[in-house]
Here is the input.
Amino acid sequence: MDENRRPRDLAFVAVAVVGASAALLLPAVLRGEGLLPVGSLWRVPPWNAVLPPTPGNGLLSDQLLQFWPWRLFLRSELFAGRFPFWNPLIACGVPFAANPQAAVFFPTTLLLLILPPAAWSVVAAFLKLACAGLFTALHARRLGAGRRGAALAGITFSLSGFMVAWLGHPHTNVACLLPALFWAVGRAVERSGGRAWVPVSVVAALMLFGGHPPTALHALAAAGAYAAFLVLRRPAAQRRPLAAAAGLSALAASALAAPALLLYFEYLSWSSTGAASAALARWSTRLPAWTLVHLLMPLASGSPAHGAEVLQAAFGLGPASNFLERAGWVGLPALALAGLALARRGREPEVRFHAALALFGLAAALGVPPLPWLWRLMPGFSSANPTRLLLLFCFGACVLAGLGADDARPAPRGLLRGGAAAAGAVLLVAAVAVLRFGAQWRPAELGFFFGQAAAFVVEAAFALCLLARPEARRWAPPIAALFLLRVGLGVNPTASARLLYPPTPGAEALAALQGEGRVFGLGPALAPDSGMPLGLRDARGRDFAGLRRYEELVSGKAGDFDFYQSASALPPSPSLLALSAVAATAATAGAVPADWPPASDADLLIFRSPRPGRRALFVAQAISSPSARALSLVRAPGFDPAQVVLLDDWFSAPQTAGARGDARIVYEESGEVVVSVRSDGAGWLLLLDSWYPGWRAQVNGVATAVRRADYAFRAVAVPAGESTVRFHYVPFAFWIGLVFSGLAAAGLALAWRRG
Here is the structure.
């Protein structure tokens, strides 16, 4: 290649990829909105009474009911000058930085400190799309693609189904780095120097910070397979040192990400995630064979954002089908050119590997035997949803498309006939569906489907033209971008930031009644975590994991992935969770006990606790109680935590029978609680916040042991008189991880300097 043309070619590719990524987000920018799917929020009380009904992708509800509350909490804590290691607002308190889906260490997440939420959502999405596209293009260039092919590869992957459908989820934090990791691994094996492996470690560490461990596991395993493939192709004398370098690079990546990893693994050890994953049997998840139609006609069954899913019955998807899970489209032009690359360059090892990668991802998503049984036997993979391996299909197909776009010969006739037959088969399926189910569709649904079929015919005609006429391939990047934008625009709804958790009379009434206690919602009222942006402490909560003892305390068992997503009744002992008020709807108000008086009937039915919820209690006596017995006692109706403290372990501390006292919280933030205690005898301060390793206490400035009390909470011994007790959270796992990360960074810096 002419070295003088290389910068111009790279500039062309960069402009094409960045332009396509920007085009997807341009409507939101022009409207001054963000990627905020409030179409999910207006369905949730109390916002269903104040927000207008708007179309939106209801399958993106996780963003509004989990990810955005976490992001806003992180933003408020950072603005207050604190790093939130602990989240006191849900489930009596849970680790926050240890929750991987919060992605608190990922670079784009930290931009929340300088950008307002709506602007952040667009900027973060653009950075992910651009990163995915640019590094896919660079990887295709490394494999021999010209500037046209590299641009096509980058555009199609950045606008592919996986990247667009999961754009607001942490999945794409990881997915956008998959091309960068493949590119870095390829360069490292080719250059065989210590410096070349440094980018591999950095990119892999960023993946681990990305916020979705299952996707990171899939992506890192794919990159590991690619590294093994490349190393085995080198001369025998180079294989051992290259394998050692790859292993050291992986170790360095793990050490770099240790602050997040150690927090996460500590959280897992105290959570019920393992039991929940086993109960879900994720290893057996698969997509129906009809999903293949959606790779060719992406909106064949509609989409929650574009219109009703009109072909649900025809494809056997059912009413709860998840549009996101079958989002694996890359566009017909890319599929046609990927086939051309296989036909013309199928003997090349790199082409074969990427074809195998794409087919493997598709086979895993469809659950082709024996893959499901293999997942079941493999630690980590048994808990990961294999349908997400459509990511590998998208990436492999886009790289192949880039390699096929530069071929200057007409496609073999067999490939042309196969492509035409595939297009005809899709149209035949569509015709059968219309004949069988068309009478059941509304006119708008019927029109939507015929519009998709017409778009498919146009796209298929262009794809066949690309195969038959090499001169048409120079138009492949822009035309492919237009087809993908047609599908991708609207998948991620936009809205103004003022519609993001606006205050309501019901929410304000809850905040006024909360005091130092907690609130609670019955049924759909105030979905868990949605009260976080309003400063409400909810005894429920949804998290990536969940503290096992808290789940057992409330439900008597552990292993429910959606624990406390919805509650049909109050917990067995409301005072143990320090409940001050309950929110309900007309349908669930009957579950509120009769002695809870109504306090508001605005957009929520609010009921006040007979006794204000109190998280800090002075208790005169404590007894040692084995965990099983303690669980049975605290779950008994009418259990009063103010009478006696049940300690898990043996204790030796002064206590005065019949002593009286009072405790009140005088200061609190995310990782600190200060309590003032006054009593006429020695006793115990019971704080009804979750016990967790890392919580420390000082009584009048003297370090004191924090005991696990009443099965899941904290207690410390206090003397007679006036005392000030300070609880503070010290995440030792983070600080240990920071040491490992610093050592790894120093080692990588040395490797870079020495080359």
Summary: The first helix runs from residue 6 to 31. Residues 616-734 form one domain.
